[in-house]
Design brief:
Chain lengths: 149, 148
């Protein structure tokens, strides 16, 4: 049976999932050095929060299916297809803007000796952030914006 | 006045557009190779290719419904145009995310210091993603739609 979440609950779950993911990535990188008694509990807490928020958002709801299913599996009146594609348009605008900012930053960073990833941990951190964001963005936009999902 | 180009003309222009871009990409990437004859001609040929690329882009897409549909807000378009435009964005998103994910996997599997060691290449990749980012939805729309 499909579970329906209210819009505030979906928005809260989206915010919590992205926040916990970013926290987890920062804690896994070597750039943040916390005492071990603080580091391990925070790491576990952010990992559990991330898993639970994603489970809460996508398990038994239509959000993941709605965001990623082929057109043929959505409703006949094409309403779902249009709503979904609008979310993709916003996601595309977001990703393209992000890369424009990266191009601008990178062109300055190399010359002005600003931060760029210099080791495995820092590159890994960026790569996972990009992969997670791009894979979840359309479904998150749907969860954030739509009244009836 | 809105101009119309045939599907064939649009497709040829798009193939040339990305083909010339790829040529420029590799040209810039390998311009440090010490072959004096190539170095001598690199700058004027690059400039020429850039001008052709710019001409193709403006000739094929400027003042056409393709560009109009990408730029306009939903309120200025009819239901079919919105549907077609948003579908082009969805395809573009899938393409660009696949490219980015492929690059990310490559970086993860290669040398840990890859980004720091390949500054020029990373710059070129970012510029290419920027070029793809701004041109891809328009190119998909121009490539796929019969009636524009």
């Amino acid at each position: 049976m499909t579970r329906i979440l209210s819009k505030p609950k979906r928005r809260a779950a989206v915010l919590i999932s992205y926040t916990s993911f970013l926290t987890l990535m920062l804690l896994l990188s070597t750039s943040i050095e916390l005492p071990i008694f603080l580091h391990i509990p925070l790491l576990l807490l952010s990992a559990i929060t991330l898993i639970y928020s994603l489970y809460y958002l996508y398990n038994d709801t239509q959000l993941w299916h709605f965001g990623n299913a082929p057109d043929a599996q959505l409703d006949e009146r094409q309403v779902q297809v249009q709503v979904r594609n609008r979310a993709y348009r916003l996601a595309y605008t977001g990703v393209a803007s992000f890369f424009i900012l990266i191009v601008i930053y990178y062109s300055f960073a190399v010359d002005k000796n600003l931060w760029i990833p210099k080791n495995w941990e820092e590159a890994n951190l960026l790569v996972w952030i990009v992969i997670f964001m791009t894979l979840t963005l359309p479904s998150s936009i749907l969860a954030w914006m739509e009244e009836e999902v | 006045m809105i101009k119309t180009n045939s599907l064939l003309l649009r497709r040829i222009a798009i193939l040339l557009l990305y083909g010339i871009y790829l040529l420029l990409f590799f040209w810039v990437l390998y311009q440090d190779v010490p072959i004096s004859s190539i170095e001598r001609w690199a700058a004027p040929i690059s400039l020429g290719l850039t001008l052709i690329l710019f001409y193709l882009y403006t000739y094929t897409l400027k003042k056409t419904e393709v560009k109009n549909m990408i730029r306009q807000k939903d309120e200025a378009l009819d239901e079919r145009q919105i549907s077609v435009r948003n579908n082009a964005y969805r395809v573009a998103y899938i393409v660009i995310v696949s490219i980015i994910s492929g690059l990310c996997v490559y970086i993860m599997m290669d040398d840990p210091n890859w980004i720091a060691q390949h500054i020029e290449l990373v710059k070129l990749i970012f510029i290419s993603l920027f070029f793809l980012g701004i041109s891809l939805p328009t190119a998909i729309l121009a490539w796929t739609e019969e009636e524009i």
